Amino acid sequence: MPESTVTNAAAIDEQELDLAWLRQKYLEERQKRINARGNSQYIEVKGDFSRFIDDPYVDGPLVRDAVAETVEAIVIGGGFGGLLAAAELHKAGIKDIRIIEKAGDFGGTWYWNRYPGAQCDIESYIYMPLLEETGYIPTEKYAHAAELFAHARRIGEHFDFYPRTHFQTQITELRWDEAESHWVARTDHDDTIKARWVLSASGPLNRPKLPGIPGVDRFKGHTFHTSRWDYDYTGGHSRGGLTKLADKRIAIIGTGATAIQCAPYVAREARHLYVVQRTPSTVDIRGNRPTDFEWAKTLPSGWQRARMDNFNQLVSGIYADVDLVQDGWTFLFGEMTLAHLAEDRAKLSAEELARLTELADFRKGNQIRARLDKVVKDPATADGLKPWYGMMCKRPTFNDDYLEAFNRPNVTLVDTKGRGLDAITETGIVFDGVEYPVDCIIFATGFETGTSYTRRAAMEVYGRNGETLSQHFAGGLRTLHGFFTDNFPNFFMLGLSQNGFKPNVTDMLAEQSEHVVGLIAAARATGATRIEPQPEAVDAWVGTIREKSEVARKFLATCTPGYFTGEGEIDKGVFVDTYGDGSVAFTALLREWREAGERSGLKVW
Known about the structure:
- The protein has 20 helices and 22 strands.
- By secondary structure, it is an alpha/beta fold.
- It has two domains: 1-41 and 209-287 and 327-446, FAD/NAD(P)-binding domain (3-Layer(bba) Sandwich), CATH 3.50.50; 68-207 and 450-604, FAD/NAD(P)-binding domain.
- Strands 2, 3, 4, 5, 6, 7, 19 and 20 form an eight-stranded mixed β-sheet that branches. A five-stranded parallel β-sheet has the order 9-18-10-11-14, covered by helices on one side. A three-stranded antiparallel β-sheet has the order 15-16-17, with no helix packed on it.
- Strand 10, helix 8 (257-269) and strand 11 form a beta-alpha-beta unit.
- Helix 2 (80-91) packs parallel to helix 17 (505-525).
- It starts with 18 loop residues before the first helix and ends with a strand.
């Protein structure tokens, strides 16, 4: 458990921070990393690179007869988002459903991400959904991948979803049938599935990407993406034992949340590990520990929802009398935002609040960098690992083994200082005129963001009059509350869009599922068969989102490039279109909208 270091930001002595120097340093480091190509610097995984998205966890392609069927609802995706949506439908009495999942089982992120060290970075007691419903208590504060995958399967079994799911199946086309008021889905197995309602929970981070490094297609050694970890090559399993790497020189490209977790395991077993870094992550204390099952026995009914709400309140910068979670996230936001509450916030001008926030941010950054000097023995390596950007420019990471791995003699940081590698040859990686021979390249390069919704979902959606969703969103995302858009009746988008973002994504998805299914259930109760927002309501909501994103846009414009910033193209940033007043305000907005009973902006008939 990390120790709380919450400090009154207003009391920070500005003399302890060289503000002018820090501002200039952050700017210089940002400038090094700006790439005019933006998202196009990455390669779409298809064609010759399709092996990076093949499913290594099934025996082979599924062979089955095509299905022609009609159901009440289709749920796209079998990760936690899809499972939560299906569970809400089930609880609402809508049991005639079909889940479509491209993987071989439930799990989503936790089906694909089985790399060594993979675990949730939000505590498992609030991250793993439906714990009370399934009667399960996680074995540790931050559950590892196998336990998370098993829980997804547990949910599937608890609600009897397996017979209602087509696995290893991808919807290629959704088309609205105006005459019949239903959707027609076609799949890569030539299925034709008709449904009144479609809930899409394909996930915002599901399509692997590769860096467009010159020569990336020339390397003759072994390669794979972390979301398709090759244990046949490495040996071992998600908790370690990668003994086949004993004579191997490995390069891991990327230093985001995935590499932070898997690099220490590779370091323990490989002959040599090169960690290729463009931009370092902020790495704070994790503090994992086994579950105290005596404590678990004392938990009252409703404990998980109370714990989720408490966490979300604190990470939204809203004071609470108690911190139930007490982890790196709540401590971070305590230092960054709650410290201001020592002052009467109502008396703080916007300028003063911005000043205090900047001070707190710089101070926390200094703490992160000071920890590096204490942990990493080689001063040059420690300096290379230091992040120079605002704490929320990138997703914070928490790990107790990553920094220590660089003290091993067989680990080398290849700090490209924001440029990335110069080239990949047939036998190695090249930076600054130096070639590092390697036997295997592991791409810890994340997933596509900033590309079109339909590209990431790998399907096209045709609304009324044949308009495609790609055409509809050509000028940018346009929704009402993030869930539905005009001209596409009964099509509901779950996930990260023009709604309230929660760091605990499964909590966000649970709230969305409950809201959307509640609307469907209410419509069915009156005999209605269509739900669609009015165009003027969509226009107004897009305007609201844009207006409330101005503060975020200004902040992101100061950040080093990454998927938060759309690689420098702010409009393509993963969070730029979320509700700027935060998730607590968004939850209140939805509640008031429902309680008004008018379904303002929504046409139900």
